[in-house]
């Protein structure tokens, strides 16, 4: 339900890690590895964030767009649905869903401006066609919850508002991973607070105890986030391009 | 977790054809409504297990500016996909036709709506709507609204034509709130409708909005319910202001004047935030110009002031949105505990001897096809009721937006999705195993909701006292 996560389609659609990490067979046939699959999704999340900055939409729209993109790839292959088109289209659709509509024309214009690589260029018509395919791929479930609101409330409750910027940044980075498909957003928020409190050497043990959440899950999410930072030091443009070339999508 | 077995991939478009494959599962009967968003059709399911069931198909026009699926359609689908309640219209399918980028929403079909019911009594029947029907309609409307508000959804466009009532069948006389094109989840501050270029009828608009308030709260829906309640009683719109037609949300002085005439002037003593409303300040001489002395609501609705019905109505038409009755409070009102008790089938009174009014079937324009093309053949007349594929005569102009629904289930697997498989989603709100008891420890999405007394969201319980009678 709209304001009740536990009754929402988002909650019902949460997936197990294995389901999120299944490389679709058309992609497998082209030699795409799990690592590459994750890499392409991360790259596309970054691409959405970059585009969002130029078309000027709120963080929430970005988060929704990335979630749409990740959900699409739990059901569709990279080969069928070119990520270079899916990513901007998810931003386009999310902007409508989150009531800060971005028009297709400026979006296409900014894509051209942002991406020297011709393979990222699409026409308005391509975006509009992909919008419909994405709606179907999402099974028309468009309401997405994010960790930002719970984060703010938790930080206030814990008296850790001075950590807001750090924790907020951590939450932003979680969209480079598939966490939003697997865990309830408030658990992701808690993991980010946990990491933040370790980094800033704040003792939050008793606060977490009082919450009576499963700390094992919070710690596991935190470890995933930290692993992600470790594994993605230095950028990977070449590896992303290598993966995209394997797909041989658009010549 | 996710229902991966469900087919989502029906792209539907027969190559090069405007008649997508999915449409072939329906027999089109005709057009039943038209609005700015597009057209509404009545159709019947061809295949089992629901052969012959009626559905209403709302076809959204492509957005004019060449910008894909209209944001209104997106938001309507978005909300409808999340909600499920007996008194809220049920979306059974979504279809996309990639050939012309049109979008179709298939709903359960409802034969009646309050606009038509009220009109029938006013123009065709010599008596008012019987008290049992009025109370049952109102109770169910509030029950659906309480569900929406409990889930932080404001409808924002409640009016008689958007309140549907099911015709013959299992759900006869059940109210369904429809048309969520303007509805919003309000965890985030809402932009005024006028900012989105949206025009809604002013007769049901709350005074705070007329006075320029920028914030929508669920109280705006309760004002509309009050207006609808009065209209059910008197068969006339309560505040029939003359709309100022102009772009950019013009000040609707006449509408306010109509309200003041009946309810008296609002005062800052009774409504403290009144003074901060833009139009109260800027149009002072207009608004505060002529004073109306005695509030005459009871005279207008012909109710003694001591009656619970009057008490309830006056509390819904409270000026101060903060003091206005909520849907949950209204459901608790004495009016609903007195005889006649509200019931499940609002159209058929339980007391023997009460006359049952046969409301006419919705007019269908059989000359329009799914593409919205009108053929030249003249409309033909046909009997009402459950008239089947034969054509029906259109007896009224089709300007007002309509939404009709009525069919429990779609055959599984035929279309993009099948909501019936998860219709019970609203029941278990709090899956076990999430032991978070302390305030902020609770998932914050849920917190605000817990502030109020559990309104029994998702529960469609009617007042228990009447259970024996009506079920």
UniProtKB/TrEMBL annotation, chain A:
Keywords assigned: Cell cycle, Cell division, Cyclin
All copies of domain Cyclin-like, residue ranges: 46-136, 149-227
SUPFAM superfamilies: Cyclin-like
InterPro entries: Cyclin-like_dom, Cyclin-like_sf, Cyclin/Ssn8, Cyclin_N
GO BP terms in the entry: cell division; regulation of transcription by RNA polymerase II
Sample GO molecular function, one term: cyclin-dependent protein serine/threonine kinase regulator activity
Name under which the protein is recorded: Cyclin-like domain-containing protein
Native source species: Stephania yunnanensis
UniProtKB/TrEMBL annotation, chain B:
Binding site for ATP: 59
Domain Protein kinase: 26-336
EC number, as in UniProt: 2.7.11.22, 2.7.11.23
Leading EC class: transferase
Keyword annotations: ATP-binding, Kinase, Nucleotide-binding, Phosphoprotein, Serine/threonine-protein kinase, Transferase
Presence of the UniProt keyword ATP-binding in the record: yes
InterPro entries: CDK, Kinase-like_dom_sf, Prot_kinase_dom, Protein_kinase_ATP_BS, Ser/Thr_kinase_AS
GO cellular component: mediator complex
Listed Pfam families: Pkinase
GO molecular function: ATP binding; cyclin-dependent protein serine/threonine kinase activity; RNA polymerase II CTD heptapeptide repeat kinase activity
SMART domains in the record: S_TKc
Region (Disordered): 430-471
Domain of life: Eukaryota
Reactions performed catalytically: L-threonyl-[protein] + ATP = O-phospho-L-threonyl-[protein] + ADP + H(+); L-seryl-[protein] + ATP = O-phospho-L-seryl-[protein] + ADP + H(+); [DNA-directed RNA polymerase] + ATP = phospho-[DNA-directed RNA polymerase] + ADP + H(+)
Keyword Oxidoreductase set for record: no
Family statement drawn from the similarity comment of this UniProt entry: Belongs to the protein kinase superfamily. CMGC Ser/Thr protein kinase family. CDC2/CDKX subfamily.
Family annotation (PANTHER family): CELL DIVISION PROTEIN KINASE, CYCLIN-DEPENDENT KINASE 8-RELATED
Protein name (database record): Cyclin-dependent kinase E-1
Species whose genome carries this gene: Stephania yunnanensis
